[in-house]
Amino acid sequence: MAMVRNESVARIVMFLCFGTAILSLAVHWQITKTQAQFEQPASAAGSPPESTSTARGAFTPPNQPNHQQPVQRSSVPYISGAVSHNSAGATDLSPKVRSLFSGQRQNSPGLSSQNSSQTEVVVNLSDRRTYVYNRGEVIASYPIAIGKEGWETPTGSFRVTDMEHYPIWQHPITGKVFPSGADSPLGERWIGFWSDGRNEIGFHGTPDTHLLGAAISHGCLRMRNEDVRLLYEQVDIGTLVSVRD
Predict the structure, then answer these.
(1) Considering the entire predicted model, what is its pTM?
(2) Angle, vertex CA 37, rays to CA 32 and CA 38, nearest 5
(3) Domain range spanning residue 2?
(4) Confidence band of 17 (pLDDT split at 50, 70, 90)
(5) Where residue 189 sits, what CATH number does that domain have?
(6) pLDDT in tens, 213-236
(7) Same domain, 161 and 129
(8) Is the same domain home to 12 and 76?
(9) Which residues are identified as catalytic?
(10) Are 43 and 61 within one domain?
């Protein structure tokens, strides 16, 4: 009698274990199926989007109509030779003006907002110089290199659209990427003012200062690194840039 009872208990225990195993398998299958449903859309959402990067420099000559909104020309006159230059070619500014625009932007809160609406950058391509006006007076002037034949710097009135410290550059023809730094072809600062949605043109530094004064670029305006650092502090997003022949 005891043996029959023990066999019954053993069968009950065996059925319970078998049922528990089946239930565990069913629960595991359901959890795995649910995780797969959640992971699939997450993977799709994490897939890299199509590249929308903008190249600095032009893949095609920048003499096509630009896509910026028309900008009303300023009444600030262009005064050729109105600024005295030192032996290195930069403007010989007074200590008062130089201190106004020296240092990092973050160390001078409110400076850009107070002056950007009264500041205009005038590029004279024939002179190979950039002039900075504030309240109608020339406060700085810098030598530049301009776009070469077939890649001429676009003329007209524009606005500064983007600014960057130590930009990374991708060659517009070969696609080679150059790291940031003082020896980068873009130098230490980037100040963009023209774009067709794919390519950008702007002011930037250069380590090849012996080429200043030449028509050598793909449309951009090259400057000495020390000069583009000063210009970076004198302008802001929205500053008017007038490029003239």
Answers:
(1) 0.62
(2) 100
(3) 1-47
(4) low
(5) 2.40.440.10
(6) 999 999 999 999 999 999 999 999
(7) yes
(8) no
(9) 204, 220
(10) no
